[in-house]
Specification:
There is one protein chain. This protein is of the alpha+beta class and 257 residues long. It is 41% helix and 22% strand. The protein is built from ten helices and eleven strands. A six-stranded antiparallel beta sheet has the order 2-9-4-7-10-11. The chain has a five-stranded mixed beta sheet with strand order 1-3-8-5-6, with no helix packed on it. Strand 5 and strand 6 form a beta hairpin. The longest helix is centred in the last third of the chain and has 18 residues. It starts with a strand and ends with a helix.
Amino acid sequence: MPNKIDDTPKVNTQPGWGCLARTYERGDIRLPHSHPQGQLLFAITGVMLVESANKRWVIPPQRALWLPSNVEHTFNVFSRTELRTVYFEPPFIALCQDFKARDEVHVIAVTNLFRQLIAGMFDHSYNAESHRLMASLLLQVLSETEILPAALPMPLDSRLHRAALEMMMHNNWHASLSQLAELATMSERTFSRQFVKDTGFTLRGWKQWARIYASLDLLANGISLKQIAFQLGFSCPAAFTAAFREVMGSTPGQFQQ
């Protein structure tokens, strides 16, 4: 059974910002909630599905998600996740006049500078002034980082969504159309037609993209291409690499650089 978490951790944001480090296990579900602060979600390891206002974003370690203040959201955790969250009070956000997308939920690519700033903000060997400067610079970096599309659309229909989660949560990539349609209590024809309508992908095409997104956490943890290919149901490392290049536009090695 999934572990449904509905507590709201207390974070001191009196300086204008605050940090929270938390570990979630595979299958954990953070129930719908919101914060009066702007929120930056970044997983050092793990993959999570964040949902807000009928939109869904799959966030691997190579991506981060900005959530404006008072935006209700929830998330499902696909693998053990080390989450780092930075909260920003609205007046502190307003100091960064270049941050035009402050009121828009959006995904960004994680750069080396971004990682270092996040790590520094959780490092207690720095004093409060250094942390304030890091928080300010992090907002500036956000303002200059390209907004990425939600590259893996999740089905909006609750029945299709349940079937898609089953595949991703349990790495059940060999599930047949008939099995998934039965799980969604639909006919195979209705399932296929509605899936394309909801996601823009055929089931087969979506599975391919979903497997590549599932691989990003494994790559971030240094798992070999051979092991990743086996775990995600590819015939060999070369087949995984070819699929990865098709989806991400680069080889796994190039993506990690």
